[in-house]
Amino acid sequence: MSDQAATPTPTPGRLRRAWDSDFLYTFRRAPVAVVSALIVVVLMLAAVFAPLIAPYNPFDPATLNLMNGFTPPGEPNAFTGESFWLGTDDQGRDVFSTILYGMRISLFVGFSAVLLAMVLGVLLGLLAGYLGGWTETIIMRIADVQLTFPAILVAMLIFGIAKGITPPEYRDQMAIWVLILAIGLSDWVQFARVVRGATLVEKNKEYIQAARLVGRSPFAIMLRHILPNVLNPVLVIATISLALAIIAEATLSFLGVGAPPTKPSLGTLIRIGQEFMFSGEWWILFFPAATLLALALSINLLGDWLRDALNPRLR
Hints:
This protein is mostly helical. It has 15 helices and no strands.
């Protein structure tokens, strides 16, 4: 036997195996998912590295010049001669810089609110599905009652209550955290209902019965055996909920009950821009609104693809 025939076939590396996996193969074959992912990644990186990318710090009063106010995109200002890519707002702030810094607030609120809703919903769903009885009845009836109200109204109610009990001197500092709490507590229901349904299916399977026979505690069974098997729908809901949370934050900020003026988000920028929509300064509203639309739509399309990719019936 020759040396060449005796040489074993090299094992593909970990990155190569991941690249050839069914998940990434499906991703590469979906142009809409690829474009959406690229848009999301670019916008998120731009928000994270805003201090390095933004030409100006729009929230530093020392760098503002009121003479630059209402400068059209790409045109030199009539008084200072300065030009800005996306123009300036009424205070002379660079719109491009405000969008980058505003996305940081919107994405931070969106991710934090979804994380809070996911942790709370998954925990309550596991308890309701596995324990059953009065625990399930109480949790599901609370979820049913909350579903009778629009999520944005629930968020506004929670925001108002939380802000009301916060001392006045800390309200601006705590506004972002109150906003996260309000959106998170208004979105946990969908996680709980999906996890409860999946838990009802999983708890009657043989591997759960075996775990009970060997003396595993209910808490250990829920976290170490049931939870890994119900994560697929949770990830899909979390992706779609991220877009909804960003839109909810923008809606609350647009209504004036969200991010404070000292830390404006995309919603706050849109609220400021709509005041000048009919006076000719269209760019103050258009560019923040277009950024919000691109971000939310891309995340939604990515969530739709993820839902199909993780559905075994479609394989």
